[in-house]
């Protein structure tokens, strides 16, 4: 991956490093950017036919929501987990909708929040009782916003769906019409995965795995599970990649740019990225890497390269806009739909360029570890006349992990958020406090999140000021 020495392009948002690195910054990385309002919405994973394993859902719930499902959850514990996954916060004050709950009960706030959303009906909750499979389905269906669909079900459709569970209807004393409709819709939509159909029984205690599958399905229906355009092995992944890229435009967020553009002017940072969290992959950090570039041909060849090396991964294209200082001595900048400049007080410009991140979630940790060997051999430029590399390879490829990796180097990020948009700037860890403080001085009410992560050594060397 060579970052071509084109002074009108650059790649990734870096934080303040040495002056020599700052001068090199614009020439090493190519540019691209995104306007999220115009970009297509992130693809939600399909949940109607097949579902991830309970283990995958459990890992996701733990990493994204800090939810630990017990082997035999109570109804109250499941209610708390549902409310947490839906990011609902119930108030302890106000009307108590449940005659067997007190404000000090662990499930109280979550139950009130779910009742406000129509997921629970009020009355008697029995929070301490074991969670039953049918109760879990009724809660999950309403949490997934499927109840209106369920209540369209006539008797014939109910019979057809419940037959898959081995349940006769009508005539079952354990099923009201509403309960039967909800259960039938859960079967037809896949909210209740097919893997549970043969063992499902009304009144049986739900296991942690059963609860995990239902809760994961709820997140899928809400568009809050993993976002992916496909997998490396998919026959149509290249078409989907192109489509996702071509529908992206520059991201422009005035509220955020006012802060980080001022940081650029003050030389606090040498660049930054703008991204949209609605496209975030939400992949398992232990299995995932994020890879940044600006050339879609490179992305296509990279996926083909991974396939040829026997590596498979889920793929999500995350739109990204990079911003950096364009020096006036470089000449009059040429603007396009994917490359804009704005002149600043000293005669220089701030350039905004369209780029992308590809998030990969590999099938195994071993495949994640092997990724670097593939990049070093086929996608990293080591000489001006390098041969046998994929298109637009850079001297310093950029990819990083949120979990430690052997031979990777720790760096840091300062991230500012405004709604679903965020600006981020990468730096050496020694600079993280200085940059965070500087951003707070520019905007005292700015929400700055600072954290450390792990990047490939060539990019780390770039932050040190190295060109190759």
Automatic annotation (TrEMBL):
Signal peptide: 1-30
UniProt entry keywords in alphabetical sequence: Signal
Top-level division of the source organism's lineage: Bacteria
The protein's name in its UniProt record: SLH domain-containing protein
Species lineage: Bacteria, Bacillati, Bacillota, Bacilli, Bacillales
